[in-house]
Amino acid sequence: MVKRQSYLYFHTVDKVLFRFHLALAIIFMLIGVCSAHAQNLPKPGQVIDHNNYKEYKELFSDIFALGFENGFEMTPTITVKVSETGSYPFPEPVKKASMKNKGKYDVDSEGFITGGYDYIGFPFPNLDPADKKYAQKVMWNFTYRYLGDTKYGKNTSSMWLMRKGQPIRYQQMDYFILRFASRYYIEPKNVYENPAGLLWAKIQAFTYPSSVRGTSMLNYRYMDPRKQDDTYIYLPSLRRVVRLEAGERSTPAMGTVVSPDDFNGFEGRNQDFTFKYLGTKKMMGVQNCPWETKDDLPARTTKEFPLCRENWEVREVFVIEALPKDPDYPVARRRLYIDKETYCILFSDSYDRSGNPWKLFVNYYKREKLPSGDIMSKYHGGFGIDIQTSFLTAYAFTNMTTNTHDLKYSEFLPSALRTSGR
Amino acid sequence: MATKTLFIKFLVKIIIIFSLLVPIECFSFEPIKFGTTDVTAYGWVRNNLGMFLENQPYTQNSNDLATARTWIRLYTDIEFNRNLKFYGAAQLAWEPKYKVEEGTERTWDEYCEYNDLNDVLREASLIWTSSANHKFLIGRQIVIWGEALTERVGDVIHPNDNRFTLGFANLEDTRIPSWMIRGVHNLPGKSSTSLEWLIIPNIEKKEYRVNRLADFPIPGVRAGQRFGIPFEDRDIPGKSIGSLGLNAPVARGGIPPFESGSPELPYLTTEYPESNSDDFRYGFRTSSILNGYQFGVSYFHTQHYDPITERRELTGTFDPQLGLPLREYAVTYPQIDVVGAYLNKDTKVGVLRMEAIYVPEMPFGTFDLDDADAVVDRDYIKYMVAWDLNGYLHFDWHKTASFDITLEHVAEWIPNADDLSYLAFYSTELPSYNPRFAINLSTNWFYDLIGTSVVVQCYPKSKSGLIMPTITYKHPWLNEALTFELKYINVFGEDRYSDIGIMKDKDMVLLTTQFNF
C-alpha cells in the first residue's frame, strides 16, 4: 500500500532542521505504514453492509457504524459500495497561491494566525505533524480551503426531514455564496474589497414547502477572525429582516437537526474552540457522489432518505477533536474527520455534555468541472442525525454550480433579503 | 340565507379545485414552466375558532362565540426572467353571523369580504430588477419598516384592519395593503448603504386609506361588534363629550354652549384622505451596515390613521327632536410627518434593537369645550429598546432547542400632554410619558414538532396588560401541511378606557387550524 501524500504535505525548512524533519517523517511514515497494514481495507466493487461491517468498522466514524448495526434504529441498515480511490487535487491557481505562503505564518497563543495572512491560498501548506500547533493549523487550512469564488444554486438544495423513520417534511431552497477572498477566476481576483470586511456571505432562501417559502437567511463571516459572525433572517410572516445573534450558531435551524456550526461538517469559528490532533488514518468517504440531478434522488415522501450508496473510497483523513471554549455550548465534543487531500469533512461525530454520542454528520462531495476547465471537489450532500431522538435531516445540492455567476456584494445586503422575499 | 349558501358552495368548490390541482404526494404546488417563465402558486386555508371567556358588555345576548373565521389565501410568484417578476396574493374569507352581534348595523355580507376588491386582491406587484443595485416595484404592496415586534413604532406605512381580530391574526394579516411605486437602490461605490423610497397615491377605496375599526356600541341605540372598543360611558362634565354625536350629549341635554348661545348637539361628518396629490403619502428609508451595526433613518409623510375629531361651525340646522342647534364635528385624518431612526447590533450576549420616531406638531383631540376646534398640535416621540437572547439558554434536559427570550420596552412621550385625550373616543387623559414592557419566552420541542411560547405585556401607567400563552403543533402528515395553534388571551386593566385595557372584557381561547398548500 502506497501512502498518498497531499501536495501540501512535505516541504524543506532549512538545512539545519532537515535531518530532524527527515527522521520524524520516517518515523511517521513507519507508523502510517504499520497502521495501514493493521487496517483491513476493502477492495473496489466490494459491498459493506450489516454482515461484514465489523471487519471495516475502523474505516467509519463511531456513530456512523451504528447505521450498519441497526440503521440508527430508524432506517434500514446501511449498505455502501466501494470504488477505486481517486485523486482530487485543488486547481493550479490555488496550489500556486498556497505555496507562496510556505513558512510565512504561524499561530499565536490565542489560536489566531500571525504574520499578516492575506486570506489567499492555504495559510499552512507546510504542515508538520510534530508541530504542537498542528491541529490549529489543520483547522485554519480547513477554514480557508478553496470552495469557489461564487456558488449559485437556484432551487437546487433539497432537504429531507425524518422523525423515527417517518418522513415529515421535504423542503427546497436557493443557495448563493459569495467569497471575498481566495478568488482566482472571477474579477476582482484574490480579494474582493468590501466595506464590511467580509470573508464570505451566504444566502439560503427557502422555496418549498409553502409553509416556509420566502424565508431567507443571510450569513456573514468576516475576514478578521476576531469579529463574530452576523446573521439576518427575513420572515415572510413578519415581512421584515430580523437580526439573529451569534449564539444561534449552536441552535438547530428551521426545524432541522443542523445548526449553523454544523454546516459543511463544521462551520464554527476556530477561536471559539480548542482543537486536538488525534492522528491520521484511512477512512471511507464519498468524493465523487454519483447524483447528477434531482431525478437521482429518492422521492420526497419516501421512507428512504437519500443515502449515497455508491462510490465510497478509501481516503486518508486528519482526525481532529473540537472542544468548545464556552462551557454552555450544547455540543461538548466534536470529532472531525477531514480528508487530507481536499480538506473536506467526511464525518463529524458530536457528543453531548454528558459524554453520550449525540449527532452524526456525513458529507458527500462531487468532482466538478469549473468554467475555467479546472476540476475541483464540491460539497454535494449528506445527512445529519440525532441518534438520541431519532431525528434525521438529509440534504443534496444537485445542480449547484461553482464560479458560473458573477455575484455582487450588493446582492448580499439585508435590504436584498427584503426585496427578494414577498 | 341564499347568499350564505351560495358562498359556502363557492368556497367548497374552490377548495376542491385546489385539492385536485395539488400533486397527491406532497399537497403543494410544483412550479409550472411556460418557456422561460416559472409560475408558482401556493397558500393556505385557515380557520380561527375562538370563544370569549366572559360575557360581552353592550350586547343583547351572552353568546360566547368570538370568531369562526375561515380564510383562504392564494399567493402567486411568476418569474419571467431573472430581472422581471410578479407577485400576487388573493384572499377570501367567510364568517358566520355572530349571535353576539345581534342588533348591530353591519350586515352579514361585510364579514364575507370576497365581494370587495380591496379585501380579495391583497397584493399584486411587478418587480423589475434593472441591475444588482436597482430594483423597482409597482402595484399593491405591503411594506414593513421598523424593529419593534410587539407593537408598531417605525412601522408606519400601512393602516390596520381591526374589524375582525384580536391577537389571533398576525400583524401581517391585519395590514391594509397600499397601491404604490417603490424603489430600492444600493448606493454606488463600495457602500453598504441602500435607499428605499415609496410613493402611495391613496387610490384605495376611501375607507381603506385609514385604520378600519369594528363598530363600537351605543347603549340603547345599537349593539357593538364583538371586537368594537367599549363605549365611553363616564360623565366628565365640562370636559367630556363622550362618544361624539351619540347619546351622552343627548342625555345631558346637549353640549354646553361654545362661545355663547344655547346648548347644542354634535353633527358628525367624516373626511377621509383624498387621492389627489395633496394627500399623497411618500417617504424613504435607508439601511447601512458599519462595524457590525445595522442602522438607518426614515421619513414618511402621511395622514394620521386614527381619527381626530375637530370642532367646526354650527351647521345652521336644528335637531328635530330637541330643537337644539347642530354643530359639525368632523372626524379627520390630518397630515403628519414621521421622522425615524433605527439600529441593531449583535452584542456578545444577545441582539440589541432600538428605534424611535418623532412627529413634529402631531394633532391631538382634546374635547376641550373652550377650544375653538378642540385640536392641538404637540410634538410626539415614540421609541423602542429591545434585547433578544436567542440561542444561549441550552439545558441538558432539552437539547434540541434553546429557550429564547425577547424583552421589549416601548414608550410614548409627549412633552406637554396635560389636556390630551386617548384617541377620538375617550376622555381619559393621555399621560405625558407612557411606557410599556413586553417579554416573550419561547422554545420548541422534538425539532419543531411542538412550539411553546408565552407573551406578557404590561402598561404600568394604566395598570393594564396582556398574558398570552400559545402552543403549536405541526402534524407530520402531508409534508407538515397541517398545523394547530391553541392560544389563551387574557387582558387585564384597571379600566376599559386606556391602553390595552380597552380589550379587558375580551379574554378568549382560540384554536387556529391551518392547511398549507
Taken from the alpha-carbon principal axes, the silhouette of chain A is: globular
> Proportion of β residues of chain B?
over 45%
Determine the mean pLDDT of chain B. 84
Q: Unreliable stretches of chain B, pLDDT < 50, 5 or more residues?
A: 20-26, 242-247
Percentage of residues in DSSP E strands of chain A: 25-35%
Secondary-structure blueprint:
The complex is a heterodimer of chains A (about 425) and B (about 525).
Chain A (H helix, E strand, L loop, with lengths): L14 H24 L8 E2 L13 H9 L9 E2 L10 H8 L6 E2 L5 E2 L19 H10 L6 E14 L2 E14 L18 E11 L7 E7 L7 E6 L4 E5 L28 E14 L25 E13 L8 E7 L5 E7 L5 E13 L5 E12 L4 E7 L3 E2 L11 H7 L2
Antiparallel strand pairs in A: 1-2, 3-4, 5-6, 5-17, 5-18, 6-7, 7-8, 8-9, 9-10, 11-12, 12-13, 13-14, 14-15, 15-16, 16-17
Chain B lengths: L1 H20 L10 E3 L2 E16 L12 E15 L4 E11 L13 H4 L5 H4 E11 L2 E8 L29 H4 L3 E9 L6 E8 L46 H5 L13 E7 L9 E10 L2 E11 L4 E11 L6 E8 L2 E12 L4 E15 L9 E21 L2 E16 L19 E13 L4 E10 L4 E12 L1 H4 L1 E11 L15 E9 L1
Question: What would you note in describing this structure?
Answer:
The complex is a heterodimer of chains A (422) and B (517). In chain A, 14% of the residues lie in helices and 33% in strands. In chain A, the strands form three sheets. In chain A, strands 5, 6, 7, 8, 9, 10, 11, 12, 13, 14, 15, 16, 17 and 18 form a 14-stranded antiparallel beta sheet that branches. In chain A, strands 1-2 form a two-stranded antiparallel sheet. A two-stranded antiparallel ribbon of chain A has the order 3-4. Chain A is α+β, with helices and mostly antiparallel strands and 422 residues long. Chain A is globular. The termini of chain A are far apart. In chain A, a hairpin with a 4-residue loop joins strand 16 (375-386) and strand 17 (391-397). With 517 residues, chain B is mostly beta strands. Chain B contains six helices and 22 strands. Chain B has an 18-stranded antiparallel barrel. Chain B has a three-stranded mixed beta sheet with strand order 9-13-12, with no helix packed on it. The radius of gyration of chain B is 25 Å and the shape is globular. Chains A and B meet through strand 5, strand 6, strand 9, strand 10 and helix 5 of A and strand 2, strand 10, strand 14, strand 16 and strand 17 of B.
